[in-house]
Design goal:
nine-stranded mixed sheet; Elongation Factor Tu (Ef-tu), domain 3; 2 domains; 16% helix; Alpha-Beta Plaits; single chain
Length: 287
């Protein structure tokens, strides 16, 4: 399994007798179904339902959780958690370690590698193990290798793929990645997210992007027939991710319109593991 080091991550510790109850009531992810040895994606939302902070959460012992997030948002994330703590019996702190190791199995879903010192990243169908405890395993792959793998699997992250406070959980496929606990009860922003789920109104989605030549820079607008359909996210050569309006993409496909990014013709597809589909017809808004 190739391994690389991620030097732009931070680890936030939340521990104490009421840690699970505290987090369960504010985060999207359902901690009741979070097992030992696994990390699941989640978010802390604004009351209006948009993502303020994204992270991976894992258990770090009895009554203790580890929240892995971007290093540049960690301090603000802690401040927001402290704001919601009130009188809850929890301790919130940032760990000194700011490097995470990740190993991945690029060509098999049946990896039996020992993960006793790591946790499985459940965003992926293939075996992906994140290591938090020092000493970390030695790196034998580059960050570009990891990014290329992540993009090939259709897994988006804030920063390179979308801006915080600008996306709903459905936009970045948290509903597809078990990052939203629809049955667990209330959490911040839950009403908006549940309404979107039950009405089936999510139209912005992460899609795989492929081109015959090199793709332009992240942030380039995707257009079809002179009309915007989405925005390019992370790019690795001829492959990348985009957040796009799937109703407009479907309309362009049905009309045999070229979809392009900065003059480069692209094809868009749904990640193979995702459960959503392109709509059968254009939305009333686009009619």
């Amino acid at each position: 399994m190739p391994t690389t080091l991620l030097a732009d991550r931070a680890l936030v510790s939340v521990s104490g007798l009421e840690a699970e109850h505290f987090l369960q009531n504010i985060l999207t992810v359902d901690l009741d179904v979070l097992g030992q040895g696994e990390a699941k994606p989640g978010a802390l939302l604004a009351p209006q339902g948009k993502i303020l902070f994204d992270f991976l959460v894992s258990r770090a012992g009895e009554d203790a959780f580890r929240l892995e997030c971007r290093a540049d948002i960690a301090d603000d994330f802690i401040k927001r958690l402290m704001f919601y703590r009130l009188r809850a019996k929890v301790d919130i702190s940032k760990q000194e370690q700011d490097v995470v190791a990740v190993s991945w199995q690029a060509d098999s879903i049946a990896s039996q590698n020992d993960s006793s010192t790591g946790v499985y990243d459940r965003r992926f169908n293939l075996a992906v193990i994140r290591f938090y405890e020092t000493p970390l395993p030695a790196a034998d792959a580059t960050l570009a290798d990891w990014d290329a793998f992540r993009l090939s699997q259709g897994v988006a992250e804030s920063g390179p793929d979308y801006a915080l406070n600008d996306a709903f959980p459905h936009d970045v496929l948290l509903d597809q990645l078990d990052g939203i606990g629809f049955k667990k009860g209330c959490f911040i922003g839950q009403e908006v997210v549940s309404r979107m789920q039950h009405r089936g109104t999510a139209r912005r989605r992460v899609l795989l992007v492929e081109a015959a030549g090199a793709l332009p820079a992240s942030g380039t607008e995707l257009t079809a027939g002179g009309r915007p359909v989405g925005t390019l996210g992370s790019v690795s050569g001829t492959h990348g991710l985009a957040i796009a309006r799937i109703d407009r993409v479907k309309a362009a496909m049905d009309a045999s319109q070229e979809i392009s990014a900065g003059g480069v013709t692209v094809s868009l597809s749904i990640p193979g593991w995702a459960r959503f589909t392109f709509p059968e017809a254009a939305s009333a808004e686009d009619a």
